[in-house]
Design brief:
heterodimer; A: mainly alpha; about 80% helix; about 0% strand; globular; B: alpha+beta
């Protein structure tokens, strides 16, 4: 179910945001015109080419989504598996129950915590790393790029085991280092106050390389002449960053922030592997909650309702970001 | 499932030799994926002929009409008889008066403890009643100081609070498992006893994830007692260094008033035959083969899983194992979990709410009220089905 919701949001996000990238937009426009002319001559051929893909999307995407949507209005559960008579149509009962369930609000709060703190942090770290790796004075650039990207392609389970040791209250490296500065040991994953920061730290470390690569591409597409002109005007490094780099990077930044936000809303694997949502539900995310309800307890109707609430939240958040972009663009 | 899956392939080869023409295909599934896999198999009509099933899952699969009722076959069998098993374990396979599984190996909880630490605190013999137990823990705590503890009760395990509740006479669920009974006095007293151990610093506020290596910590003396299951006989024997030999032992759980009150939970795995199987006769033959005392002893030698048959315990390999003895004693006093499909979910709610008291400081009474409300909501569907008359699978003639 998480995957499905992910794709819905992923598709809308990518499509909308891809369009405004300035370098791509100009040639694409002329290309599209030519295509459209050909299409008008023979619309049936175009349809025939698109049909297999459409059929696949319909069968494997729209149909399950529609089925899940219907499911969310029933109390489909383990009893219903054995006998379909045991299904009751409950209307908006699941949604009403969901809003009354404290655990859902806890999960939602945790997820927003993760998105609002982890998302910007991840962007800042990625951008910082991209600037460093892209700096003129840095040598062995491919080496650093590879090293920073390595966590992205590492299996999360392996990473989680290592990080569990780093976070260990007694023997962990983190507490050892903090201890050298006189900080008392922190029970990172065992303390409800610290578990989410610990998860955020790990998630940022694991994921920043991906955004970094996109940022590097964005940085490299900024024409050198702009920096030259800025330098001739006597702009300092900070001024160059604020007045050249940031505005030129804006479309990339927006794309990365939307994609990161969508991904972060679907927080699942990190708490699933590291803490199972504990301690005291402090790392339970919406998707983890949905997974447990659906696949552990087979309360499919209820889980489907969670999926659609999360979908609505991600959709709203994406629209909000696009609105921000539009306002800035005008 | 797990290690059993590897071993049973070896036993199955002997079975094939005895029964030419019967071929056994063994499929191993990790425990974590087994429940999902079997459920999906049932939905897809692709269940195996025979399977190992955690005995808390039996009611669930009975509710799904997935299992073959075995009473008639048992009545005809020369190998499998109910009287040859621990009664509490056998009972876990009986749902609504029908027998749906044959116990294969057993699981329960006892105390693993440091003999030296208990003796130093003045308890050469482990405590038998709750007041003694509590006094012993306080004495140990006084000895070991602030950073060490008397007992390790992982806050993310439900077995400990549930067992203490059952010891105190709580039925856990009431009215034919239609409603929760956690706010009732019997469970509440046990819950207070349990949560006070954390409040008073006798047990560390830690889950399994917070203690990276239980064996190392046991050796270092982070805790002197640990409530856990039979798989740890092998693990403790293997992982503790030679210097620890003779310093640890196992003992049956204490009870509120000792004696018959000192019950534990009846866990383990059962062998079941699926209703849709086209080879029920052969599947039953394999069940009988695996239930023979000598095969059970062999299975124990290969896996360390404790046999469900009383007769197998007379074998020297088991009778001579000092750590297994506590389990034998305890298995004479075990109670099954409530036999409803919702139990697994309810069990996790028990430690959710216990954690609220332990870590969140919620008063026990309020935590249990919340637990009852949530469990009653979970049981709503069951009440509806019982009212409609579809909750009980109609006992079928075999």
């Amino acid at each position: 179910m998480s995957g499905r919701v992910g794709t819905v949001a992923g598709v809308t996000g990518a499509e909308v945001v891809n369009a405004p990238l300035p370098t791509v937009a100009a040639p694409a426009r002329s290309g599209r015109r030519r295509l459209r002319d050909g299409g008008l001559e023979n619309p049936r051929a175009a349809l025939a080419f698109a049909l297999p893909a459409l059929a696949l999307i319909a069968v494997f995407f729209f149909l399950p989504v529609a089925a899940a949507f219907l499911l969310s209005f029933t109390d489909f559960d383990i009893y219903a598996v054995s006998n379909f008579d045991n299904v009751r149509v409950v209307g908006f009962g699941n949604y009403a129950q969901l809003l009354k369930t404290p655990l859902f609000w806890t999960a939602l709060k945790n997820t927003f915590y993760f998105v609002l703190v982890g998302g910007p942090l991840s962007l800042a770290v990625s951008l910082g790393a991209a600037l460093l790796v892209n700096a003129r004075t840095v040598r062995f650039k491919p080496f650093f790029r590879t090293v920073y990207f390595a966590p992205v392609v590492t299996t999360l389970v392996a990473v989680a085991i290592v990080w569990r040791y780093l976070y260990h209250p007694r023997y962990g490296l983190l507490n050892y280092v903090l201890g050298a500065f006189g900080v008392d040991p922190v029970n990172w994953l065992g303390d409800p106050r610290w578990a989410m920061p610990a998860i955020i730290l790990m998630a940022v470390w694991k994921g920043f390389g991906y955004n970094m690569v996109i940022f590097i591409a964005g940085l490299q597409s900024i024409p050198d002449e702009l920096y030259e002109a800025a330098r001739i005007d006597g702009a300092s490094a900070t001024q160059q960053f604020r007045n050249v780099t940031l505005p030129m990077l804006w479309p990339t930044l927006l794309f990365v922030s939307v994609i990161t936000m969508i991904g972060y809303f679907q927080l699942f694997a990190e708490p699933y592997v590291m803490t199972q949502g504990g301690p005291l539900k402090s790392t339970l995310s919406v998707v983890l909650y949905m997974y447990e309800e659906g696949f552990r307890w087979w309360r499919m109707g209820f889980a489907a309702a969670i999926a659609f609430v999360l979908f609505a939240i991600i959709l709203l958040a994406t629209l909000f970001q696009l609105w921000l972009k539009k306002r800035r663009g005008e | 499932m797990g290690r059993e899956g590897e071993v049973v392939a070896e036993l199955a080869r002997d079975f094939e030799r005895e029964n030419p023409g019967v071929h056994v295909r063994v499929q191993q599934i990790p425990w974590t994926a087994a429940h999902e896999k079997l459920l999906t198999a049932h939905v897809g009509g692709a269940t195996p002929d025979i399977a190992q099933l955690g005995n808390t899952w039996v009611p669930e699969f009975v509710a799904l009409d997935a299992l073959e009722r075995l009473d008639a076959r048992i009545a005809r069998s020369a190998v499998v008889q109910g009287s040859g098993y621990f009664p509490g374990i056998w009972a876990t396979n009986v749902v609504n008066g029908g027998t749906f599984g044959i116990p294969w190996y057993v699981d329960t909880r006892v105390i693993f403890y440091r003999k030296d630490l208990l003796a130093r605190a003045g308890y050469p013999v482990p405590p038998a009643t709750w007041p003694e137990w509590r006094a012993a823990m306080e004495a140990i705590k006084k000895q070991v100081g602030k950073d060490r503890f008397a007992i390790f009760l992982p806050t993310n395990e439900w077995a400990q609070p549930v067992i203490l509740g059952m010891q105190n006479g709580s039925p856990l669920l009431k009215d034919g498992a239609r409603y929760a009974a956690f706010s009732d006095t019997s469970f509440r007293r046990a819950f207070e006893f349990y949560t006070a151990l954390f409040r008073d610093g006798l047990a560390p506020v830690a889950g399994n994830n917070d203690v990276a290596n239980v064996y190392q910590e046991f050796e270092r003396g982070l805790f002197a007692m640990y409530i856990t299951g039979p798989w740890n006989i092998g693990e403790f024997s293997r992982r503790l260094p030679a210097s620890m030999r003779g310093k640890w032992a196992t003992a049956p759980l204490p009870g509120p008033t000792g004696g018959a009150s000192a019950v534990s939970m009846a866990g383990g795995s059962s062998l079941v035959v699926f209703d849709k199987s086209p080879h029920k006769a052969e599947a039953w033959k394999l069940v009988e083969f695996l239930s023979r005392p000598e095969q059970q002893v062999r299975f124990y030698a290969l896996t360390g899983d404790l046999p469900a048959r009383l007769e197998s315990w007379r074998d020297s390999s088991l009778a001579g194992n000092e750590y297994a003895r506590a389990f034998y004693d305890q298995l004479g006093r075990v109670l099954p979990m409530p036999q409803v499909p919702e139990w697994e979910l309810i069990a996790t709610k028990v430690f959710d709410y216990a954690e609220r008291t332990i870590r969140g400081g919620v008063p026990p009474e309020r935590a249990l009220k919340g637990l009852d409300e949530e469990v009653n909501r979970i049981l709503e569907k069951r009440r509806w089905m019982l009212a409609r008359g579809t909750g009980k699978p109609a006992p079928r003639a075999d």
